[in-house]
Amino acid sequence: MLDVTAGDAAAKRRLRIELASRGGGDVASAIRRRLVSIAKSRAFIDRLKVSALAKDLEAQREAIAVHVAAANPSEAFNLLWRMLEMAPSMYEGCDDSNGAIGNVIAAARDDLRAIVVCAGQSVGTLADRVFAAVCKNDFGQFDNLISLMAHALGADGLHRIKVRLEESAANVPKGAGGERHVIGFSMRGPIYEDDYERDRHRRLVRSALTEIADALGDVDGFAGRYSDEEKANPAVAAAIAGRLLAADRTSEVLAMLDSADGVFRQGGHWPDLQRVRIEVLDALGRSEDAQQERWQAFERSLDAAYLRAHLKRLPDFDDMDAEERALDLVARHPAFDQALALLIDWPALDRAAALITARTDELDGDHYWLLTPAADALGQRHPLVAMLVLQAMIDFSLDAGRYKRYGHAARHLQTCEHLAQRITDFAGQPSHAEYVADICRRQASKASFWDA
């Protein structure tokens, strides 16, 4: 195995950890040394090389969660915590625009939640650590930490953090006199460093206190952290309404939802608000109103879940008529991609074929995640339509010069050849031979496509 991993430092480190875990070695010490080495690195890592760092970090995280946690959960907890504390320096020292490092950090937070009870931390110690971490959460590395640790903190620990946060909020420095440092500008004028820091601290404290109220099941405490203006935001209103509903305070929920109804009706995508409204209408016994909301939600979003829920609650035979009416609406919907996706997934393949035939010019060949499964689904019964879908992806790849897709485009062209053998009437569309001749003329210079 050492020969196999020669020249691959990350694989060799992984091998040593695996061997140590089976041979009585000190895995924790090896991981700790590696984390120290990563933390000491000062070289900037660009986007093309950051995956190697993420892979290395993930190997350390996995070793902690699998090997160290089984033998010494307290040590595993401390190592994972150390990894989270390293996050700011890693983010500053690399380009993590693809989120590779962030994904490892998020997984480490989940690991903390899994082992915190076994780690044997006292409530006071854990509360102090969580408070300090929340106050240093400049890069989001400790996001949702209070919620993740809530079951181990218990009410006593949560109250302890709450008291310290409230004291911290009350003792925010007002700022010294003299010259103030401008760090930017907004529509309202200059942004001063001391103002920015105070606002940041207020937001941090409010977010943490809201999280504590939620963990304690304190609906009023959760809602009280938002201003009346913020409660008119559909996302905030839905969050509060959902908690009121869970607390069996149904009569208060509609008032909360109505406060955001004006913004909701103006447009936008607010699925949580719609979902909670339907749940509360059902809870109040207003089944017809709930059904109407489901239908309206389906009309706006073409979300199949709302349609299925609506049909499920209709009497026999009425559901068949409603389904036909719904699919007619889908065929007329201006959002072509959404309509096609629903018809393919439903499935209503004849209607999907009719939609593509009527609106072929709306096929976007860049949307391979939609068109590839559509072509697969339609190929058996509607070969001509499937061929049009594949041609849209081929044309886009070649016209846009997406050379990484040329291999897929070449396979699509082969599939078109097989489909053409089952087409007796091209219905005014070019035959496969005519299509190939056309792309030969237009795309003769795309050698990598023709060689694929």
Description:
With 452 residues, the protein is mainly α. Among the domains are: 226-285, no CATH class; 297-332, no CATH class; 335-452, no CATH class. 70% of the residues lie in helices and 2% in strands. It has helices at residues 9-22, 27-40, 50-71, 73-92, 100-115, 123-135, 145-170, 193-215, 219-224, 228-231, 234-246, 250-259, 261-265, 271-283, 287-301, 304-312, 318-332, 336-345, 349-358, 368-378, 383-399, 406-420, 432-442, 447-450, and strands at 182-186, 189-192. A two-stranded antiparallel ribbon has the order 1-2. A hairpin with a 2-residue loop joins strand 1 (182-186) and strand 2 (189-192). Helix 6 (123-135) packs across helix 7 and helix 15 runs antiparallel to helix 16. The chain is globular, with a radius of gyration of 29 Å. The two termini are 36 Å apart. The model has no long low-confidence stretch (mean pLDDT 88).
Descriptive keywords:
mainly alpha, two-stranded antiparallel ribbon, 70% helix, globular
